[in-house]
Design a protein that fits this description.
Structural class: mainly alpha
Helix content: 55-70%
Mean pLDDT: 85
Low-confidence stretches: 94-105
Strand order of the largest sheet: 1-2
Largest sheet: 2 strands, antiparallel
Number of domains: 1
Shape: globular
Length: about 100
């Protein structure tokens, strides 16, 4: 898959995670429906998110609303760390895109 799909699905998943704990019931319901849809797992795979993300998010949804709001930012932070670590493994320092002598790290 191209990087554009990865970027788009990453943003969609991030927004869905935020919507799971937002104050708007329609957004929460839509995010929950997306989370439990067949495409969510494939979107996670394309975006590079861990396979157990759906289970983790569903467990968080079993918590009280205040607990959900406290835990979800921690999940978002951890996902960002994992994505950063994955990106570093794919392109170690000094091995970025090189166009006409310009290192694009």
């Amino acid at each position: 898959m191209s990087e554009i799909y990865k970027t788009v699905y990453t943003k969609v998943i991030q927004q869905a995670i935020k919507d799971l704990v937002c104050n708007h019931i329609n957004d929460r319901e839509a995010a929950t429906k997306y989370l439990n849809s067949k495409v969510f797992i494939s979107h996670c795979d394309i975006a590079g998110y861990p396979a157990g993300l759906r289970d983790t998010l569903n467990e968080i949804l079993s918590l009280s609303r205040p607990q959900q709001k406290a835990v979800m930012p921690l999940v978002m932070e951890r996902l960002a760390q994992e994505m950063e670590e994955l990106a570093q493994k794919k392109a170690p320092a000094g091995e970025g895109l090189n166009i006409e002598g310009v290192n694009m790290n």
